[in-house]
Amino acid sequence: MSSEKSNALASALRPVLARLNRKLRKLSPSNTVLSQTERSILVLLEQHDYLLSAELALLEKITPQSMGQLLNHLAVLNLISKTASETDKRKIHISLSPTGKEMLQQVRHERDEWLSKAIAEVCTEQEQLILKEAIGPLTKLVNY
């Protein structure tokens, strides 16, 4: 594909994906009390057994002080657990609490339910096949 065609495709695809992402975020009533960064922290904690506050701050590219405030908010909501390290009591392991796991599952369920309904109602069978075939190339873009 020529550079010009690739640029045109990128210009058409980017706003559609951004709008879909925003719409999915807005459609999760279970997730309304959290900022985008707090949601991202929960997902990171889901991917790891635990992380330190400093590691989370580095991954999210925010200051340790800001991370501390976010973690305090998540702790008040009972979405995370804090446990002292067995080898170094100065270190606090941050992990996803059972309530946090339930919330992530609920949010994903709400989003999947909406997206499934939207696909079924507005896309033809042919369009649904196109969407299915697009998952591979879109995954490559995300992993780039």
Task: List descriptors.
about 140 residues; mainly alpha; Arc Repressor Mutant, subunit A; two-stranded antiparallel sheet; 6 helices; 2 strands
Written description of the protein model:
The chain has 144 residues and is mainly α. The chain has one domain: Winged helix-like DNA-binding domain superfamily/Winged helix DNA-binding domain (Arc Repressor Mutant, subunit A, Orthogonal Bundle). The chain is built from six helices and two strands. A two-stranded antiparallel ribbon has the order 1-2. Helix 3 (53-60) crosses helix 4. It is elongated and about 55 Å long. 12% of the residues are buried.
Q: What's the CATH class label?
A: Mainly Alpha
Spatial sequence of strands, sheet with the most strands = 1-2
Q: Would you count the extended β strands for me? A: 2
Proper CATH architecture: Orthogonal Bundle
Shape: elongated
Largest sheet: 2 strands, antiparallel
Mean pLDDT: 92
| Structural domains: how many | 1
Percentage of β-strand residues: 5-15%
Annotate the secondary structure layout.
Elements: H1 3-26, H2 36-47, H3 53-60, H4 64-76, E1 80-84, E2 92-96, H5 98-122, H6 125-143
Antiparallel strand pairs: 1-2
Short description:
This protein has helices spanning 3-26, 36-47, 53-60, 64-76, 98-122, 125-143; strands at 80-84, 92-96. The protein has 144 residues and is mainly α. Strands 1-2 form a two-stranded antiparallel sheet.
